[in-house]
Write a structure and sequence with these properties.
nine-stranded mixed sheet; 35% helix; 17 strands; alpha+beta; globular
Length: 416
C-alpha cells in the first residue's frame, strides 16, 4: 500500500482562508457563528461548500437527510470509498472551527491531491453530515444516526425545534432534501478531523490527538411539575417549588459524577422555566442532564443513579417528575488499524502526539457501527468550544490536516 512521502503537506493558507470565508456565513454576535442546522445560514453555507467541491472536480450527492457527499473518483470502479468529513452546522453561540474544520480539512485533502496529481485506487468522499450539533433538533448526530440505522428516517423527520418547527419541513424549506436512501452508501473507512473541545492537548503541548475511543453518553430530559405561585406572598412551607427540586437534582448529578471518578462527567446545560417570570415560582421546569463516560458499566451506573434519585428528591418537595432519554450512544472503540495509521502519520511528519479519548460525541461515533472509523484532533485554546471565543492557530489546523492527508491517502491507496 503506497503512502505519500513525508515531504508532502497540505496548503495551510488555503485551508485557513476557507475557514475564514465559511465563518462569514451565519456570524454570531461575539466573533463566532450561529449557523444552526436547517436555517437559511446553513443553506448558504452548504451552497458555498458545494461551489468549492464543484471547483475541485467533485461530484456531490445528497441523501434524504440532506447529508452532502462530495466524491473524487478512484482508479478502481469497484473499490469502496474512503470517507472523510464532519459538519457545517453550529451551536447558537458556536465557534468557527467545531465541525467546520473537519469538512474543510477533508476538502483540503482533495485539493492537495489534485495539486500534486496523485491518484488513488479508492474514491475519496468528503462529507457534511446534517444536524450533528443537535442544538436545534435533538438528538445530536441525527443524520449519521439514521445512516448507521440507529434512528429511522421518520423519527428524524418528525423532530421539532423549540419553536415547534419540524425537521422534515425545514429540510424541504431550505432546499436540501436529496434522493439518496440514507445509509445505502458503503464505506471502506471513515476519518473525522476535529478540534479537541477540551484542554488536554494544549496542556500537554501536543500537536495531534490520536483518538482511540469516544465517550458514551446519555441525555436525560427531566420535566418537573410544581405549582405556579407568587414568590413574595406564598409562605415557604406552602410552596410546591419545581425550581428548588431542579437545584437539588443538579447537586445530585454533580455528586454522581464525582463518585464515579475518574473517567466520568455530568452536568446540565439547558433549562427552561415556565412561566419564567421574576416573581412567579415555576409551575414547570424542563432540563437535560448530560452524563458521559468511556466505560459502559460506569455510564450505566450513573444513569441508574440519576434516574433513581431525581424522583425521590422531587417527591420530598411534592413535585412531579418524569424523565425521557432524548440522546444516547454507547462508548466507542475506534478501528485499531486506522488509529495506528494516524499515529504513524504524525510520527512520520514529526508532529508531537498523544492518545486521547473524545469527550464529545461526533458523527464518527455512529459511522463506527457500519465501517472502520477513527478521528484526528488538534488543540484548541484553553479547551474552549461551543463558545464564540473558540480559537485555534493556523499551525494547529495545518498539522492536523497534514496527518489527515497522509492517513486518508494511504488508506485510499496511492496509485504509482
Amino acid at each position: 500500500m503506497a503512502a505519500p512521502g513525508e515531504n508532502l503537506r497540505i496548503n495551510p493558507d488555503r485551508l485557513w482562508d476557507s475557514l475564514m470565508e465559511m465563518a462569514k456565513i451565519g456570524p454570531g454576535i461575539a466573533g463566532g457563528n450561529n449557523r444552526q442546522t436547517l436555517t437559511d445560514a446553513d443553506g448558504e453555507g452548504r451552497h458555498l461548500f458545494k461551489r468549492w467541491c464543484d471547483a475541485a472536480g467533485l461530484k456531490t450527492g445528497i441523501d434524504k437527510m440532506g447529508t452532502m457527499f462530495a466524491r473524487r473518483e478512484g482508479t478502481d470502479p469497484d473499490a469502496l470509498p474512503v470517507y472523510v468529513g464532519s459538519h457545517l452546522d453550529t451551536q447558537p453561540t458556536g465557534g468557527k472551527y467545531d465541525g467546520v474544520l473537519g469538512v474543510l480539512g477533508g476538502l483540503e485533502v482533495i485539493r492537495t491531491l489534485n495539486d500534486l496529481g496523485i491518484k488513488t485506487k479508492h474514491p475519496i468522499v468528503v462529507t457534511n453530515w446534517t444536524n450533528e450539533e443537535g442544538a436545534r433538533f435533538a438528538p445530536a448526530m441525527l443524520a449519521s444516526g439514521v445512516f448507521a440505522g440507529v434512528h429511522t428516517l421518520d423519527y428524524a423527520y418528525l423532530r421539532t425545534d423549540p419553536d415547534g418547527k419540524i425537521f422534515g419541513d425545514e429540510l424541504k424549506r431550505i432546499g436540501w432534501v436529496g434522493d439518496e436512501e440514507v445509509g445505502a452508501r458503503k464505506m471502506h473507512a471513515y476519518f473525522e478531523y476535529h478540534i479537541e473541545q477540551g484542554p488536554i492537548l494544549e496542556a500537554e503541548n501536543k500537536q495531534i490527538g490520536v483518538v482511540t475511543h469516544g465517550q458514551g453518553l446519555w441525555w436525560l430530559e427531566f420535566t418537573l411539575t410544581g405549582k405556579e405561585a407568587h414568590t413574595g406572598s406564598t409562605p415557604m412551607n406552602m410552596r410546591v417549588n419545581a425550581g428548588l427540586a431542579m437545584a437539588r437534582i443538579f447537586e445530585m448529578v454533580q455528586k454522581v459524577a464525582m463518585d464515579n471518578q475518574p473517567g466520568a462527567v455530568g452536568g446540565v446545560g439547558q433549562v427552561k422555566f415556565s412561566p419564567n417570570s421574576r416573581n412567579v415560582l415555576p409551575g414547570t421546569v424542563v432540563f437535560t442532564v448530560d452524563i458521559r463516560s468511556p466505560e459502559q458499566a460506569k455510564l450505566d451506573r450513573m444513569r441508574a443513579a440519576v434516574e433513581a434519585e431525581a424522583p425521590r428528591i422531587a417527591k420530598e418537595l411534592g413535585v412531579g417528575c418524569s424523565v425521557e432519554a432524548v440522546g444516547h450512544f454507547d462508548p466507542v472503540t475506534f478501528d485499531p488499524t486506522l488509529v495506528a495509521r494516524v499515529r504513524a502519520a504524525a510520527e512520520k511528519l514529526g508532529y508531537s502526539h498523544m492518545n486521547i479519548i473524545s469527550g464529545a460525541g461526533h458523527d464518527a461515533c455512529w459511522t463506527a457501527r457500519v465501517a472502520p472509523s477513527t478521528m484526528v484532533m488538534c488543540p484548541c485554546v484553553d479547551g474552549l468550544s461551543h463558545n464564540e471565543a473558540e480559537d485555534i492557530s493556523k499551525e494547529w489546523a495545518a498539522a492536523g490536516c497534514d496527518v489527515l492527508f497522509h492517513a486518508v491517502a494511504e488508506t485510499a491507496e496511492i496509485v504509482e
